[in-house]
Automatic annotation (TrEMBL), chain A:
The lineage of its organism: Bacteria, Bacillati, Bacillota, Bacilli, Bacillales. This is Stage V sporulation protein AA. Keywords: Membrane, Transmembrane, Transmembrane helix. Coiled coil: none annotated. Residues 3-90 form the Stage V sporulation protein AA domain. The chain crosses the membrane at residues 96-117, 147-165. It holds the Pfam family SporV_AA. It comes from Bacillus amyloliquefaciens. InterPro entries: SporV_AA (IPR021997), SporV_AA_N_sf (IPR038548).
TrEMBL record, chain B:
The keyword Metal-binding does not apply. It comes from Bacillus amyloliquefaciens (Bacillus velezensis). This is Stage V sporulation protein AB. InterPro entries: SpoVAB. The chain crosses the membrane at residues 6-33, 45-62, 82-103, 115-136. Keywords: Membrane, Transmembrane, Transmembrane helix.
């Protein structure tokens, strides 16, 4: 009988305090059905209050647990070397004041930024010149050019982020979603290295 | 005389070459053309888009130096303004500051699901700031 099992750690597991994470929670397992079931139920880690927000489970820890229970089993691991356990607490209700504050901050900030940009690149002179090129008349206040320009500014941003036309145009992720994903990946990478005592060792620290 | 003419031509060509290369490099970094092609699924027209950017830059450069007048309807300024605004808006959206600030902000304050509303704050801020600038600010500065 072949006593071999394949194991792949999940990237991210969500848990609450008091939960017991089993091997089946932390990893995908492939192998003989009976063995798989027994292995899946094996407790790996108990989440306590002390763990705060994040715990990193190393592959070695998983292998140790399996080895103590099934010493003769041949475990082949595939993929990443650690699982990040995200511990969720009862979420505090988001304060509306804070949200409005951030919204206004971004709003006013964008206002100022675009005005500074216009002054910086002499946008007004360019608009006046552009209007003169098109119509042949000089107009110090070419609103006919400037109001559509202002609306176009917003439209261009929306097109770039593709939030409103998402369903209609296509379903590829928007640059913002990609950026958020990358940011999360960077965070995960950092956490996997720094929250995991096993990855670093100081020889003189005995 | 001929030497100085040739020298001036050389300097002009060199300057144009550098500015043109810089412009294209800037556009490439911003990734606006790929984004538009991705949205409209028209990857096969890549060279036509290149041509559009180049001819636009050359035409704009020529016009800033010569100011030819076309004597067209003033209503033509509306689509021109709209397209110009959209281009600048896409540039503003592509700036990495926006792309980097929003995920961090959303993560820090726990607004993950409301990021679209925060994005809208920036979009409306741009529109309002621009309108305020043209309709009020320039009269009072």
């Amino acid at each position: 009988m072949e006593r071999r099992i394949f194991l792949r750690l999940r990237h991210r597991v969500k848990a609450h305090t008091g939960d017991i994470i089993t091997i089946g929670d932390a990893a995908q397992i492939a192998g003989q059905q009976k063995l798989k079931k027994k292995l899946s139920a094996l407790p790996l880690y108990k989440v306590t209050k002390k763990d705060k927000n994040i715990v990193v489970l190393d592959i070695i820890k998983v292998l140790k647990t399996i080895h103590t229970a099934f010493p003769a089993l041949d475990v082949q691991t595939v993929g990443g070397a650690e699982t990040i356990v995200e511990i969720h607490y009862q979420k505090k209700q988001l304060s509306a004041v804070l949200f409005v504050g951030v919204w206004l901050l971004l709003f006013i900030g964008s206002c100022l930024a675009i005005m500074n940009f216009h002054e910086d690149v002499s946008m007004r002179e360019v608009h006046i010149a552009l209007y003169e090129i098109i119509t042949g008349e000089r107009n110090e206040y070419p609103y006919l050019l400037q109001i559509p320009y202002s609306i176009g500014l917003g439209l261009g941003m929306i097109v770039f982020f593709n939030h409103i036309f998402k369903k209609r145009l296509n379903e590829e992720p928007s640059p913002l979603e990609v950026e958020m994903f990358n940011y999360q990946l960077d965070l995960d990478h950092y956490v996997a290295m720094h929250e995991n005592e096993e990855t670093m060792k100081d020889l003189h620290d005995r | 005389m001929i030497v100085s003419i040739l020298f001036v031509m050389f300097v002009g060509l060199g300057g144009g070459l550098t500015v043109g290369a810089g412009f294209v490099a800037f556009l490439t970094v911003m990734g606006i053309v790929p984004r538009l092609m991705q949205l409209t699924k028209t990857m096969r027209f890549v060279q036509a888009y290149e041509g559009a950017v180049i001819s636009g830059a050359v035409f704009g450069g020529w016009e800033t130096l010569n100011m030819n007048h076309f004597f067209l309807s003033e209503w033509l300024a509306v689509p021109v303004g709209l397209l110009a605004g959209m281009f600048v808006g896409m540039l503003a959206a592509a700036l990495t500051e926006v792309l980097n600030v929003l995920p961090i902000l959303a993560k820090r304050i726990g607004f993950g699901s409301k990021i679209i509303i925060l994005l809208m704050a920036i979009v409306f801020g741009k529109i309002a700031g621009s309108l305020f600038h043209w309709l009020y600010f320039i009269h009072h500065s």
